[in-house]
């Protein structure tokens, strides 16, 4: 069990990258982990765009607005899918994204989950040719870390309520 917890706690947001390309096999391994996520009614609404061309990576990161730190990442992964008619879309995509991030960290790579809204959708769509009926769930710069982020837990006993809610004292 301790090994599993260490693998989870190794996931940290990395915002500095060396610019070295990420091996395709490692991206595929992370995507395999993403697609192993649970999914409501096993709908698996996810698909992924992987950009590895340095110019595209930089353009996507700049277009996002809060991901410019990723311009030197070796790749950008965009989890996306058809949101309409998918009751559990957000939960399914979040589970897949977290699985991907945990796998990335345990491959010795770094990444950060950058959220999406409609304005960012419109800024990013032209770079990847994504149709309007597809929703980009996140922009994830992935790369060789240029900074060290040690594993950590953020466990806070005051946020745990046993049996029933108890307001803070």
Structural account:
With 169 residues, the protein is an alpha+beta fold. It has one domain: NADH Oxidase. Strands 1, 2, 3, 4, 5 and 6 form a 6-stranded antiparallel β-sheet that branches. Helix 2 packs across helix 4 and helix 3 runs antiparallel to helix 5. The longest helix has 18 residues. The two termini are 33 Å apart.
In short:
The chain has 169 residues and is α+β, with helices and mostly antiparallel strands. It has five helices and six strands. The chain has helices at 2-9, 24-34, 54-64, 89-106, 118-128; strands at residues 47-51, 75-81, 110-111, 114-115, 135-136, 138-143.
Number of domains: 1
Which structural class should the secondary elements be placed in? alpha+beta
Name the helicity range. 25-40%
Query: What is the number of helices?
Result: 5
Average residue pLDDT: 95
Question: What characteristics describe this protein?
Answer:
single chain, 169 residues, NADH Oxidase, six-stranded antiparallel β-sheet, 5 helices, 6 strands
């Amino acid at each position: 069990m301790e090994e599993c917890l260490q693998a989870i706690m190794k996931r940290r947001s990395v915002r500095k990258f060396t610019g070295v390309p990420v091996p395709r096999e490692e991206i595929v391994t992370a995507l395999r982990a993403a697609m192993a996520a649970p999914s409501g009614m096993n709908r698996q609404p996810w698909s992924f765009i992987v950009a590895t061309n340095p110019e595209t990576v930089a353009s996507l990161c700049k277009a996002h607005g809060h991901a410019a730190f990723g311009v030197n990442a070796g790749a950008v992964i965009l989890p996306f899918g058809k949101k309409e008619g998918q009751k559990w879309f957000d939960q399914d995509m979040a589970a897949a994204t977290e699985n991907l991030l945990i796998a990335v960290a345990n491959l010795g790579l770094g990444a950060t989950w950058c959220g999406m809204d409609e304005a960012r959708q419109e800024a990013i769509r032209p770079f990847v040719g994504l149709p309007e009926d597809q929703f980009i769930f996140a922009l994830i710069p992935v790369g060789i870390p240029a900074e060290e982020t040690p594993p950590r837990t953020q466990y806070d006993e005051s946020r745990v309520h046993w049996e029933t809610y108890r307001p803070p004292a």
